[in-house]
Amino acid sequence: MQMRRTAGGTVRDRIDAADQAIMARLSAESSPMLDRFLPTLSRSADFFVLWIGIAAALAASNDERARRAAVRGLAGMVVASTASNVLAKGLVRRPRPAGEVAPDRRPGRTPVTTSFPSGHAAAAAAFATGVGLEMSALAVPVGALAAAVGVARVVNGVHYPSDIAGGWAVGVCVGMLTLCWRPLGRSGPAATSAA
Predict the structure, then answer these.
(1) I want to staple 118 with a disulfide (CB 3.0 to 4.6 A). Which of 29, 81, 161, 163 is the partner?
(2) pLDDT tens digits, residue range 166-176?
């Protein structure tokens, strides 16, 4: 595939340069947020633990919308993770970042897959989209948590920023596609009388 050339090189060259600049800046900075909170948040999203925990809390409530949100979020998460980690990474095969980050920032386990797109970001965005579709009150807090997980993967040094953007795009698309197989639930008297 031919990349379009611009005055500063190909589009890919410009994205790579921006990725490197952002990662270098983050590596040089130090704060409790960058050094402790974000790496811990990233580890909590390994193996979907964070999202499964939120889904379990939603499903345990007596609110039918919360249960639907949990199901839609989990379904989207599984599909987005598979699309990213199995399909897209197999096609793109972008190497992981080689830059050094502080040991405390590194993830608990070293990823063995390629870099683009981020499976963590895709799963997070799909979960947040699914939950937000069913419960608009949770769209902002769960969406912010999903965004923070993506940023944490860059802070950890295991993804480029463009990997995160790609993962978010996959996740949001998959989250929206859940509307094809399961329309949004209705609440209120009309939904009760239809049951």
Answers:
(1) 163
(2) 999 999 999 99
Number of neighbouring beta carbons within 10 Å of residue 57: 11
User: Quick one: the chain helix, strand, coil %, rounded to 5?
Assistant: 70, 0, 25
Query: What is the C-alpha to C-alpha distance for residues 73 and 29, in angstroms, rounded to an integer?
Result: 34
**Domain parsing of the chain, residue ranges:** 31-185
> How many whole angstroms separate alpha carbon 42 and alpha carbon 103?
14
Residue 177 has pLDDT above 80, yes or no: yes
CA end-to-end span of the chain, whole Å?
A: 52
Is 7's pLDDT higher than 60?
Answer: no
**Closest alpha carbon to 57 in 135, 123, 133, 114:** 135
Place of tokens 């994205």: 15
Residue-wise pLDDT for 37-83, tens only, equals 998 898 899 999 999 999 999 999 989 999 999 999 999 999 999 99
